[in-house]
Specification:
- The termini are far apart.
- Helix content is 24%, strand content 22%.
- By secondary structure, the chain is α+β, with helices and mostly antiparallel strands.
- The longest helix is centred in the first third of the chain and has 21 residues.
- The model has no long low-confidence stretch (mean pLDDT 96).
- A hairpin with a 6-residue loop joins strand 7 and strand 8.
- The radius of gyration is 23 Å and the shape is elongated.
- The chain has 2 domains: 47 residues, no CATH class; 214 residues, Aromatic compound dioxygenase (Protocatechuate 3,4-Dioxygenase, subunit A).
- The structure holds benzoic acid and fe (iii) ion (FE).
- The site of fe (iii) ion has 6 residues, from strand 7.
Length: 290
């Protein structure tokens, strides 16, 4: 081929691909080839101007500056562009009947407190009392005895414990184990809809796109058990105003459940409640690993 001089808007793409043709890692080569082709095609298709290119560089710089050990703005960007949902969907195709996966989100921690079944994972978090119960089974209905269940959620104002720098202990999250018949139950508070953090560059972008930052009310679950694919999912609250416009595109009909409201009286824990309380029952079906 001619040397790599005098590259123009046509020949530049092939020149870059040729330059990285010695990449020894085959997967890296595949990804970088595709990335360069799509990136160049995007710039050609939109006839990207220099000032637009600069705006994009400034935006990505701001996204980076917004990141810290407590804030992952790049994940918010991926989530709000639908990339996270796409990657989850294409990596978790499951047999009919298995509980569907959805986005992980940025608020999981790996050292959440352990609770006995029936424990109160709210741990003092503000909100209306809610009793959650359910089962973990395999695709043939077999109980997944001892399955590890991690749950995490926001408070009644839509904030996760990790968003409050003054809190010294975790609230609204916990790790439990299903019993021998795959059953679990715990106490918590009612999930409410909340906006994702939108005080940074991703929030500005959403605004410029005429988009709201809200997620419908949900509980996060991560369920693991030997012999089964890890399940990362949510249970969404029926009736929520944002079920059809989740800012991160995470809603699946099969994950929507009723939070049943009960008048004041005896709760499932046999305590007396002098305010309304809620119950939620949800069955998780795990995909066996082959
Ligand atoms: C969440 O549900 O916790 C979440 C998911 C994606 C972006 C922000 C928050
Ligand atoms: Fe969430």
């Amino acid at each position: 081929m001619n040397g790599m001089r005098n590259l123009d808007e046509e020949s530049i793409t092939q020149a870059v691909l040729a330059r990285q043709s010695e990449t020894t890692n085959p997967r890296l080569k595949e990804i970088m080839t595709s990335l360069v082709q799509h990136l160049h095609a995007f710039a050609r298709e939109t006839k990207l101007t220099e000032s637009e290119w600069e705006t994009a560089i400034e935006f990505m710089t701001d996204v980076g500056h917004m990141c810290s050990s407590k804030r992952q703005e790049f994940i918010l960007l991926s989530d709000t562009l639908g990339l996270s949902t796409l990657v989850v969907a294409q990596n978790h195709r499951k047999p009919q009947g298995c509980t569907e996966a959805t986005v992980f989100g940025p608020f999981h921690v790996s050292d959440a407190p352990q609770y006995e079944l029936g424990g109160d994972v709210s741990n003092g978090m503000k909100g209306k009392p809610c009793f959650v119960s359910g089962t973990v089974t395999g695709i043939n209905g077999e109980a997944v005895a001892g399955a590890t269940i991690e749950v995490w959620q926001a408070d009644q104002d839509g904030f996760y414990d990790v968003q409050n720098p003054d809190l010294e202990h975790y609230q609204g999250r916990g790790v439990l184990h299903a019993d021998a018949s795959g059953r679990f139950n715990f106490k918590s508070i009612v999930a409410e809809s909340y906006p994702i953090p939108h005080d940074g560059p991703v929030g500005k972008l959403l605004e410029a796109l005429g988009r709201h930052p809200w997620r419908p009310a949900h509980l996060h679950f991560m369920i693991t058990a030997p012999g089964y694919e890890r399940l990362v999912t949510h249970v969404f609250r029926e009736g929520d105003a944002y079920l059809d416009t989740d800012v991160v595109f995470g809603v699946r009909s099969s994950l929507i459940a009723d939070w049943i409201k009960h008048p004041p009286g005896a709760g499932p824990d046999n305590q007396h409640y002098d305010r309304d309380f809620y119950t939620l029952d949800f069955n998780f079906v795990l995909n066996p690993c082959d």
